[in-house]
Structure formats: C-alpha cells, structure tokens
Amino acid sequence: MRVKICGLTTPEGVMAAANAGAAYVGFVFFEKSPRNLTIEAARALAVEVPLGVAKVGLFVNSDDAFLDAILAAVPLDMLQLHGSESPERVAELRARHGLPVMKAIGVRVADDLEAVDAYATVADQLLIDAKPAPGADLPGGNGLAFDWTLLQGRRWPVPWMLAGGLTPDNVARACNLTGARQVDVSSGVESAPGVKDADLIAAFTRAAATVG
Ligand SMILES: O=C(O)c1ccccc1NCC(=O)[C@H](O)[C@H](O)COP(=O)(O)O
C-alpha cells in the first residue's frame, strides 16, 4: 500500500509523513487553499524531503508561466493536475516538463467515470477523488467521500490512487471495497483546515498498512 499525504505546509508535517512511511508528499499551489505554499516555502520544504519520498506539486489549471516559475525553484518529482485540464493539456505538460503527471478526476456518480478513460492514455497516474459540491471554493481537499462501490470492478491501464474523505477509520474499508493500492489524504489527517496532525498521519498509514 502506498500513501500520499497531501497539503503539507510545515517541516514537522513533512517529517511526520516521511517517518510514518508515506511514499508521496503533496504541496499545494492554489491561492484559495488553506494549504497554499509560496515558492520559497515550497522550496524550503522540498529540500528537506528524504530521498525515496516523491514530492508531488498540486496545480489547478495553472498556466505555463506559473508552472515554469515553480519548477525552476522547487525540485518536484511529479505534477498533480487537479483542475479541468484536458487530456491534451496533460500530454503537453508531461512533455514540456519531463515529469510524470497524475490527473485528478472528480467522481459523484457512475457517469463521472467516463472521463477517466481519456486520461488513462495520457497520464502516468490517475487520482480518483470526490467531486466537490457545486460552488465549492476548492476542487479537492474538502474531506468529502464518494460512493466507493462505483469503483468496484473498474480497472485502468495506469496506476491510480483513491482520494476523498479518507480517514484513519475508513481507509482500510475504502481500499477493500475498491481494490485501491494507493491512497491520498489531506483533511483526514488534519486537526483544522491546513493543520496536519502527526498522530493522525501515523494512524492513517498504520490503518492503510492493514489492507491485505
Ligand atoms: O488541498 C487543497 O487545498 C486542494 C486545493 C485545490 C485542489 C486540490 C486540493 N487538494 C487535493 C487533495 O488534497 C487530495 O488530493 C484529495 O482531494 C483528498 O482530499 P481530502 O478529501 O481532504 O482528503
């Protein structure tokens, strides 16, 4: 089981994630988010991430200039695209930056899964997340779960992660229901929006590790 802890904002949070065995740490570059990082803050965090833990930058419909500026300063290992980027834009960014790209897809009903196939041919990984409520400020990181049974029997040709409303209490059940072997969490390991809790991070990775 591989765990991604998303929306880290402090060195303590990064170390808590690494010490708990996270395979990925996520840094948010989206102004409206309580987890948003400046370039300087992100660089300071990224250089402290232990080798072997992948540093994922989360972007929402970012333009080339913004991505260029972040990538010139912050040593990221993967781009997570969490907006309405088209399959063509995913392919373009993957080629332009030479980094693997994970495309997030929001799911509320079965029809939402139709979009996944188009991205599975151009992205390196998929992030299957809950679709936010209409009018929500954030396209992700809302602590909202979706109906996990929608994923039963679904398979894609690239690795995928399950996200959306996961917590230490529900992550094992979510993985057993969906067959997920990678999970992503943000709100479920926070004591307040944007404030990661080391005990919850450790509890989350322990619970994920119980999945057979
Ligand atoms: O975390 C944010 O603030 C955020 C902002 C804009 C786009 C995506 C964002 N977060 C995505 C995630 O943290 C996760 O990939 C995923 O949505 C799960 O979040 P949560 O339900 O809070 O565990």
UniProtKB/TrEMBL annotation:
SUPFAM superfamilies: Ribulose-phoshate binding barrel. Pathway: Amino-acid biosynthesis; L-tryptophan biosynthesis; L-tryptophan from chorismate: step 3/5. Gene3D superfamilies: Aldolase class I. It is an enzyme of class 5 (isomerase). It catalyses: N-(5-phospho-beta-D-ribosyl)anthranilate = 1-(2-carboxyphenylamino)-1-deoxy-D-ribulose 5-phosphate. Belongs to the TrpF family. GO terms for molecular function: phosphoribosylanthranilate isomerase activity. Keywords: Amino-acid biosynthesis, Aromatic amino acid biosynthesis, Isomerase, Tryptophan biosynthesis. The gene is trpF. The keyword Chaperone does not apply. GO terms for biological process: L-tryptophan biosynthetic process. Its EC number is 5.3.1.24. It comes from the Bacteria. The lineage of its organism: Bacteria, Pseudomonadati, Pseudomonadota, Alphaproteobacteria, Rhodobacterales. Residues 3-205 form the N-(5'phosphoribosyl) anthranilate isomerase (PRAI) domain. InterPro entries: Aldolase_TIM, PRAI_dom, RibuloseP-bd_barrel, TrpF_fam. This is N-(5'-phosphoribosyl)anthranilate isomerase. The keyword Transcription regulation does not apply. NCBIfam families: PRK01222.1-1.
